[in-house]
# Entry
Amino acid sequence: MNWYILITALWLGVLTSISPCPLAANISAISFIGRFVGNDKNILLSGFLYTMGRTVTYIFIGVLIIGGLFASSQLSVFLQSYLNEILGPVLILLGMIFLGMIGSGFSINISNGNKLQSRIKEKGLVYSFPLGVILALSFCPVSAGLFFGALIPISIKSSSYFIIPILYGIGTAIPVIFFAFIIAFGGEYLGKAFHCLTKIEIWFRYTAGILFVLIGIYYSFIYIYEIM
# Structure
């Protein structure tokens, strides 16, 4: 497996975690838990458990989808044969999502916020892990596009059941641990850090969107139209 594929999987995870919807959810979740766990060490621990919940969920979904696709020999052969042709249009659509051209009204939210918040108030730290699991399953356009539109095709292309989803999960964990640390030891800097990261995320997202569109067009020209 090429090193740039591994770096791409890690970067997709980071990009997912700093996207507006997941970033707001991550900070809100850790801040909310932090109100009830009592001390700085427990805030870091809650951040770690919350991150593990998200990471394990992404790994589980990735392994389940990729393993299921490869379990069917006919589907596996089809994907291995035509993935490059499929990847071009998928990357163009993903780039359009990043640029805000499509998908703005799409979301998947399976959490029961009020019920879960009341349980966190009662149990605090114990619910950090399941909160991470539930919020990981709540996909917005960008996170869904990155996971299903970019990570899954990369995993299929590299025949990686496990390593690629793990690196993606680790990537999603890095910004969360960073903000857990700020909340625990430098709460007054949270607003500034969030503001700076939001600005950086906009540039990252638009740059990624343009790159995805260009790469998608390139793949389409080569594998669909056979122009180049």
